[in-house]
Amino acid sequence: MIIHHGNTDAKSTTAPDRFPPHASCFTWHSAPCQGEQPEVHSLRRRADPLFNRRKGSVLAVAAVTAALGLVPVGTAQAAACNWQQTAWELPAGTTKGSLSATDGGRYGVGITATRSTTWPYGYKDKRGTLWDNGKVVLRLPVDGPNVSDVNASGLIVGNTFTNNKSTAVTISRTGTTTTLPSNPAWGGARASVINNAGDIAGTAQVGTKNILVVWPASAPGTYRELPLPASVFLTPRDIDEQGRIIGTNDSGGFVTDLNGVWHTLATKGPNTDVTPWAIRDGRIVGGVINDTSYAAVEWNTQGSVVRTITDGALEGRAIGGNGTVGGIAYVGSTTHPVLWRDGVVSDSLSAVSNLFSIVAISADEKTLIGSDPDQPVQYTCS
User: What would the DSSP string read from start to end of 136-184?
Assistant: First the structure.
């Protein structure tokens, strides 16, 4: 499942001059609070300052290629679909909704709320929300659990707070909250991502740092602490159906293999930040950025770069069942969603809103799920 948390964008970063740091609900974890601006929107805020810093000088394609050793993309192919937008339902009395994650088909989770017209501005009466085929089927209390991800069974993962301590939980389609097992030595825990088999990955606080934890579906009531180095900033981003986990830590991007061994996601060029966003059957997509250039990237399960996509490509954000990658690219000075296949633009999504942020692509690649400002939406191929 792909998880897109709130107000940072992209995962954590070690370059605050390029990206804003994570906002935190609590000091031990880098993930932002439920109800902050969705991360799928904050890419715009992250990307635009980057462009503004560059607009005083033009980066030629040759210069970009030399900087990162990039593989140029081919000419955009003709769009294969006539994409029709369908807005997801918002509960009566609400005016805003944001999508955090989806199973890529039936279910999605996020928040619904009302925009405050007085100080402090932003969301008010924020509630974790479950959508089923675009319809709201569960809305949690205002002080209810934070929701992070959902699988094809409608099982939600997230966390709750008791006495200022975070606890990892699952939430059923009917709203029943179940606490996940934990180590008494942990200072807190959070469940971040879940796959359709029911494997859950998250983080736990140990002292002033965080470790990666898995709650395996094959052994209910147990957990495993994976041998990823403890980090101040640790954010699981996605988990595939085989159980591989991608995310970011103090060192950059990582992937864990089927044995729980972690591999650093490779990059090129000095002072480069790496953001993995999605993994499907061992195929990883994301983005890299340094002081001179940026690109979308594909990695394998060992963390090696398979392909680097340039020509304005900023990040890969989702992978379809047939291998199509959805992400964000610059079209002139504006970011726009785009689809790639084997590093070549397969659909420029010219009829899709440039404010649409892709969270997931369906298995048959006929549906794009994500958010337009203030509302989850999907685009269906016709």
Answer: EEEE--TTS-EEEEE-TT--EEEEEEETTEEEEEEE-TT--EEEPP--T
| Residue 141 burial by Cβ neighbours in a 10 Å radius (0-12, 13-18, 19+) | exposed
User: CA 140, 190, 372, 21: dihedral to nearest 10 degrees?
Assistant: 130
The 3-state DSSP class for residue 66 equals helix
- Judged on CB neighbours under 10 Å (0-12, 13-18, 19+), 119 is exposed
CB 3 within 8 A of CB 238: yes
CA–CA distance, 65 with 71 (Å, rounded to integer):
7
Give the CA distances from residue 222 to residues 77, 141, 165, 199, 216, in Å, rounded to whole numbers and listed in that order.
49, 28, 20, 11, 7
Contact in structure between 130 and 136 (CB atoms under 8 Å): yes
- Cα–Cα distance list, 38 to 33, 98, 145, 332, 366 (Å): 10, 6, 17, 25, 24
SS3 317: strand
pTM of the entire structure? 0.81
Q: What is the dihedral of CA 368, 369, 370, 374, to 10 degrees?
A: 120
**292 band by pLDDT with thresholds 50, 70 and 90:** confident
Angle at alpha carbon of residue 189, lines to 369 and 137, rounded to 5°: 35
Class of residue 54 by CB neighbours under 10 A (exposed 0-12, middle 13-18, buried 19+): middle
Residue with tokens 């990162």: 68
Tokens of residue 222, six digits: 């147990």
Are 285 and 277 a contacting pair, CB within 8 Å? yes
Query: Which tens digit of pLDDT belongs to each residue from 187-197?
Result: 999 999 999 99
Locate tokens 């996509």: which residue?
309
Measured torsion, CA atoms of residues 60, 63, 65, 67, in degrees rounded to the nearest 10: -140
What type of residue sits at position 223?
Answer: Y
Sign for the pseudo-dihedral over CA of 279, 371, 38, 269: positive
**Among the listed residues 353, 326, 354, 322, the one whose alpha carbon sits nearest the alpha carbon of residue 339:** 326
Q: How far apart are CA 292 and CA 270, in angstroms?
A: 10
Question: Torsion angle of alpha carbons 161, 210, 240, 83, nearest 10°?
Answer: 60
What local confidence, expressed as pLDDT, does residue 268 receive?
75
Q: How far is CA 108 from the centre of its chain?
A: 13
Output the six-digit token pair for 202.
């998250």
